[in-house]
Design brief:
By secondary structure, the protein is of the alpha+beta class. A four-stranded antiparallel beta sheet has the order 2-1-3-4. The chain is globular.
Length: 144
């Protein structure tokens, strides 16, 4: 998946690769709740968000979850190359999936504090999940 596997575990490296302000969900429970909106959106520089996530103490109640969006979130999908050309150049879809690369609808970068659960959801579009650093538990159900 490219050099991101080696480079993105270094918060100082990440902080230098994007100078945008980002919208981050801030919350104090382990489970993000889409229906009850148990989070607040905070706008902050990307480098500040990286600090909050990388330096998160699991005993702290405040947690953070970032999902990249398009420049106009209601009209544009997220594409990592538009979010940050520098970060996009670090990541490559595995060569076994080259045919899929021609059909990409969006590419979403996500980052979160430890021990964050995102609500159960259904993705309409096909997905490729590439876990670059850290851990993630994924539960899949059959379409039926």
């Amino acid at each position: 998946i490219g050099c991101c596997k080696d480079l993105w575990s270094d918060s100082n490296y990440l902080k230098k690769k994007c100078d945008k302000s980002v919208s981050v969900r801030q919350f104090s429970e382990e489970n993000l709740d889409f229906l009850n909106k148990n989070y607040q959106f905070k706008i902050m520089p990307f480098h500040s968000m990286v600090d909050l996530i990388f330096n998160h103490d699991p005993s702290q109640t405040e947690r953070y979850y970032f999902r990249s969006t398009g420049e106009n979130p209601r009209k544009e999908v997220s594409l990592i190359e538009k979010f940050s050309e520098h970060l996009a150049s670090d990541f490559h879809i595995p060569k076994e999936l080259n045919e899929i690369e021609k059909k990409i609808f969006s590419s979403v970068m996500r980052m979160s504090s430890t021990k964050v659960r995102v609500w159960t959801h259904y993705d309409v579009m096909d997905n490729i999940l590439c876990q670059v650093t850290g851990e993630k538990e994924v539960i899949l159900w059959p379409p039926s």
